[in-house]
Amino acid sequence: LGCFLLQTVPAARAHDEALAWTPASPFRDELRALGVGALIRDDAEATALASTDFGNVTVAPAAAVLYPSCPADIAALLRASCARSSPFPVSARGRGHSVRGQAAALDGVVVDMPSLGRLGGGSSSTASRLSVSVEGQYIDAGGEQLWVDVLRAALAHGLTPRSWTDYLHLTVGGTLSNAGISGQAFRYGPQISNVQELDVITGLGEMVTCSKKKDADLFDAVLGGLGQFGVITRARIPLVPAPTRARWVRLLYTGAAALTGDQERLIDVERGDALSGLMDYVEGTVVADEGLIGSWRSQSPSSSSSSFFSGPDAAARFAKLAEEAGGVLYCLEGALYYGGAAGGERDVDKRLETLLRELRYARGFASVQDVSYVEFLDRVHGGELKLRAAGQWDVPHPWLNLFLPRSRVLDFAAGVFHGILRRGTTGAMGPVLVYPMNRNRWDSGMSAVFPEEEEVFYTVGILRLAVSEGDLGRLEEQNDEILRFCEEAGIACVQYLSYYADQAGWEKKHFGPAKWARFVERKREYDPKAILSRGQRIFTSPL
Ligand code: FAD
User: Which of 341, 334, 331, 437 is nearest to 376 (CA)?
Assistant: First the structure.
């Protein structure tokens, strides 16, 4: 039980290998004796599913899977593990959208969080774990709930959360364990900055309701806490009156300096630039040789076309612009909300007019679509369906996500977008995101790690798929090369949705001395036996 070995296996084999594994279940009888309403399975089918994830790069076989019917089932499981001289690992698994086994529990028990919604309250159980208070302007959401269901429940009352991820089929507990970022974070902060209260079950099996006012240390620990301090079973998310529609804008740029300069003007909500606050959502992508504009993340939900920039001569115009720009283009992606609580169409037209006049994009390369608010927020789902149909959703995803200080983003662009990414990855698909956020919307008391030295920092998401034989190895090598480049160039980046092979990596490369000391102290307080989320490879033995 104490040993922790996460193997990297060729993707096609990952699921088969997990299936072939015969569970040892050394604590099968103990699990059966828990006396909970939960379902417990240790057959190969159940454990195989819980042993791999979206990344499809690693396999870490679990001994059993707990399908809880209520939070008390999870508390009982954690207390049973705690009571052993050799505690077994327990990991909450949302939808397993991690990419490196972070939600796995090698030789331990994976808690299938969606069961809380399915088994928890009769036929309308999902609805019963999503409860909107119109008066209080908040929603109480079970930790297992998907953000897309949170959206639907809130919109039924004309309300909406403010901060999102680009993909909504992620769980509330899963994204709050990381940070939860998207193009609204510049204004409202990440999702972890938009929580009023949590119900948490600590590694000791204690059920605690916490907030900034009550048990604030646990609250701060759990938000961005990588599942290390407790299982989130409920989150109270503030709501605001919802818009009904979005103008979805794409603008092509021929250089990183122009793109980032414009992005920074748009997110500068404090100092009042002419452009500040004109967009409600600000992101950006790197458009390299493969023409990432047609990539899965960029699909228009209501369009059969695979690209926003379509038309008879679009490809030729695009190729000419790319050639002029030296092979790398950038795309600023933005949205302006309107309708409902967000003002009328005339106002949005005026805002758009100002933007198209002021922004420094390549003239003639603007695309504007008018979609519903829901279509805009749930836009990545359309891409998912298309990739699934093409058999390209369950392929390996050797993703690399980084946060880097504003002052080094152009150095990063020169070395990585114009250098490393342009070599030897023919056929590799997937978006490369780049967009800034305001540091003051993040709370440094919480566990999430982000660059704190400058007012603005960037996220870069290199979200590629390994489609052909050999891609995975090549892309992983390239990720290593990018990290080496940053180290050698002195670009102080940290990973988001991080992966480090061992504790030393977390301590030295991720947290640094002060934050590491606090993280360890909190672990000692809330999960001293290091039972929770060992798949993150941070703590593998009791403290
Ligand atoms: P899992 O992968 O199941 O779990 C993630 C971690 O959280 C694990 O350590 C797990 O043990 C822990 N955990 C899960 N549930 C709980 C809980 N209730 N309580 C405590 N710990 C828990 N992220 C962004 O920030 N922005 C994006 O725009 C974005 N887009 C994405 C698009 C796609 C297609 C995918 C696959 C991922 C994207 N992500 C994004 C990453 C996403 O935030 C992470 O994958 C996250 O882990 C959520 O996935 P999940 O809910 O399936 O959690």
Answer: 334
